[in-house]
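HUMAN:
Could you generate one sequence with tokenized structure?
ASSISTANT:
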Amino acid sequence: MNLRDYINGLDPEGIAAYSARCRIAVSYLRIHVKYASKNPSVSLIKSLTRESDGAVSLAEVLEHFDITERGVRSDAA
């Protein structure tokens, strides 16, 4: 499951719980994480993966933020 779909599937209590487990504000999750508007730290990437309880893989979190071989190459160009 991709990260945005996972976040969209959470009810308000689920969003609050997920953001608390990831140690980020609900507003940060709804804006910057959901829309990948800021580059995440390594610890946040790990938390987003771990705290989804297996619903979102590390590869899916990386792809959400365009941290892929293709994305890295286009940034370097």
User: Anything to note?
Assistant: Helices lie at 3-8, 12-22, 26-33, 42-50, 58-64, 69-76. The CA atoms of residues 64 and 71 lie 11 Å apart.
